[in-house]
Amino acid sequence: MSVTVPLITRHLQPLLSDALRDTPAVLINGPRQSGKTTLARQFTAERPYISLDDPNRLAAARSDPEGFVRQIDCAIIDEIQRAPGLLLALKLSIDQDRRPGRFLLTGSANVMSLPMIADSLAGRIEIHSLLPLSNAEILGHRSEFLERAATGDWTTLQGEMAPCIGDDLVGHVLAGGYPEMRSRVSGARRHAWARAYMTTLVERDVQDVAQIDQAARIPQLLAILAMLSGQLLNLSQIGGQIGLNLHTAEKYIGILEKLFLVRRLPAWRRNELSRLVKTPKLHFLDAGLLAVLVRATPELLRSERGRFGPILESWVYGELLKIISLSSESWFVSHYRDKDQVEVDFVLESPLRAVIGIEVKAAATVSATDFKGLRRLQDLTGSQFMTGLVLYDGTIPLPFGDRLWAIPLSWL
After folding, report:
1. What domains appear along the chain, each with residue ranges and CATH number?
2. What are phi and psi of 31, to 5 degrees?
3. DSSP label at 203?
4. Could you tell me if 359 and 380 are in contact, meaning their C-beta atoms sit under 8 angstroms apart?
5. Strand partners, 104
6. 90 near 189, Cβ under 8 Å?
7. pTM score > 0.70 for this model?
8. Which of 129, 82, 113, 79 is nearest to 254 (CA)?
9. What is the chain's mean pLDDT, rounded?
């Protein structure tokens, strides 16, 4: 599978078009370099483009937000988190003129969680997430994963999709989803891009999100979190390794979440209230960045395959988030772990409480024991259990009992 990617059609585009037809402001929220600007510029025929990465524009927007917006009838405003005061000015403008599609905004931080912004555009804005390229986007087709999981229709895919296995799968995962990173011709060049990317985040974007006293600790924190990706989150342990107290470690991880680098994965329980107090796991949202932080290369993983598991698990998590972000339903994603240490890597739950369980396996063989956690989840959820899947490094779907399947990872 090639890691060189031309301009790719993003699956979010039709959803943005629909939103702009009936909503005054639409926000594309996602990490820097995920393709937001490229996607937003496809709508410049109807509205001019303004980038707040331009220092002169940024200075004007920060010094006089209302005056800046007063000169605009409609516009694309890129990197809105750099001048958060504009959002209140946009609210005032929209209240005076509620025509749909006036403003298309992009933000490289979780803008709606920033101070003084949370409710300034409530009811006036529709928010869409754009994460780095999905597997389906790279391959040039729409994702049918949720539909096939619901129906158990996997066998019809045989012969339709070229398998990506072994070293090809490793190369595909390590290349990540960032368009610029994937365009680099070698692993060394991708590593160089990723290191420069993370340096930019630490030196500039972190300060856009929050003024912090110990920004120099952020690279250390990222390195530690990378080594613990996919594990239960222990804030005291993490903070203690770099001299941060629990409160500060919590705050800094929250900043990394706002920048779409990591995300906490909550625990699943039948009692939904108890989910709030159970220990979450932590995952990186892009496997390529994670691989750089843990210094993983195809050569290393060829000799030490066990190191691939956490990276692959983060890749699957990112893919699942991209898939459900396009769904008309609000899926809840979590992990399952009980007192007997029986686990399921990912649990997807629909608004009607239908459940999909997913286990990730880097090996090419699957056995009945790999379904232990999924069978436990099936027993707990009964008729609400839609399906249980073991995603493995293989080429064909394999049935393992009632609503249980082993599915090739590349089919995700």
Report:
1. 13-129 (3.40.50.300), 143-162+308-412 (3.40.1350)
2. -65, 155
3. I
4. no
5. 26, 76
6. no
7. yes
8. 113
9. 90
